[in-house]
Design goal:
Layout (H helix, E strand, L loop, with lengths): L5 H8 L7 H14 L5 H8 L4 E6 L1 H5 L2 H13 L5 E6 L7 H9 L5 E5 L6 H8 L4 E4 L10 E4 L1 H14 L4 E5 L6 H17 L2 E4 L9 H13 L6 E4 L2 H13 L9 E6 L2 H4 L6 E4 L2 H16 L8 E4 L8
Parallel strand pairs: 1-2, 1-3, 3-4, 4-5, 5-11, 6-7, 6-8, 8-9, 9-10
């Protein structure tokens, strides 16, 4: 239909820059008109590539908006490429390594993205050892460089604790993620450093984590707040935990913003409707998705992993 050779058609469909723009436009226009799509099985046999990026998500990540935000950013990153996104679920009671093994061993994708990186994450060890392209949301302590995108949680916790001290708080607490996750140590370090500099007390919540049911977090905070030595400042590492903390404080007869103060990360507009008295620091998961996609595409293209990382810095605009 175009009069071009198959190789020219292929390069035009992949938007190869060495071809004239007029040629690319003509081929892509006709392909769109006839509804042409490449045969994925043939593509994989011919090139060894699938043109698929697998995003591994847990059900709760989608429910709380993390998943949809990451997908939005990731979609923007691959928009003008040949790549498509396939979501691979991590089912409950399944080890996180299992979907990764399935993707790699069956060559289901050219690269994979996942979250909740642990300090010595076996998924990352497996992917490095198999030389399979990936990007993680979160860092690790493995000595080898690998692509990652993360939020500077240590700086966030530091700034949040300093803000609480500025508000007059004498004792600050935080409900932490599970201990294996790398950013747990970052949060602890930030709170401890700021508390030490401000000369105030700090503690890390016991018996509950961010992975606990919201009712469990709420009960813990309610009981802790009723004790004479209860914290008068709370740093929250997620919106869901912040809602539980604020609800518990209200039940305990505390007025947030007066008797007790709360600083939380915020990633959605919805949270702003339910957080009276709390101050927030924005964490942009859409932007994280963009960077994860861009870094993974560079890794798939053969770029060395040493420079393939991005650390988002928290910005604050406290209003006194």
């Amino acid at each position: 239909m175009t009069g071009f050779a198959v190789t020219t058609i292929s390069r035009a469909l992949n938007n190869a820059p060495e071809l004239a723009q007029e040629t690319r436009d003509r081929v892509q226009k006709i392909a769109a008109e006839i509804g042409y799509l490449p045969d994925r099985a043939a593509l994989r046999l011919k090139t060894g590539r699938t043109n698929v990026i697998a995003l591994v998500l847990e059900p709760d990540e989608q429910i709380y908006g993390f998943g949809s935000s990451i997908v939005t950013g990731l979609t923007e990153a691959v928009r003008d490429t040949a790549y498509h996104i396939v979501i691979t679920p991590l089912f409950r009671n399944v080890q996180p390594i299992e979907p990764i093994r399935h993707i790699v061993r069956n060559r289901m994708a050219d690269g994979v993205i996942f979250s909740k990186a642990e300090s010595f994450d076996e998924r990352i060890r497996f992917l490095i050892d198999n030389d399979f392209p990936f990007a993680s949301h979160g860092r690790t302590k493995w000595p080898e460089a690998h692509p990652w995108v993360d939020f500077d949680n240590e700086t966030y916790a530091y700034l949040a604790t300093k803000r609480l001290a500025q508000k007059g708080c004498k004792s600050v607490s935080i409900v932490l993620p599970e201990s294996a996750l790398t950013y747990t140590d970052h949060l602890k370090a930030g709170v401890a450093r700021a508390a030490r500099e401000a000369g105030i007390a700090h503690e890390f919540a016991t018996d509950v984590t961010l992975h606990s049911q919201t009712d469990a977090i709420r009960n813990y905070v309610s009981k802790r707040s009723r004790r004479p030595d209860g914290p008068d400042g709370w740093v929250c590492a997620s919106e869901v935990s912040a809602l539980a903390v604020i609800g518990a404080l209200n039940e305990s007869g505390k007025t947030v913003g007066k008797d007790v103060h709360v600083v939380s990360k915020q990633s959605s507009e919805m949270f702003a409707q339910f957080q009276p008295g709390a101050e927030t620091v924005h964490e942009d998961f859409v932007d994280a998705g963009r960077h994860l996609g861009a870094l993974l595409l560079r890794r798939i293209a053969g770029e060395a992993p040493e420079e393939l990382h991005y650390l988002a810095k928290p910005g604050v605009d406290w209003k006194d």
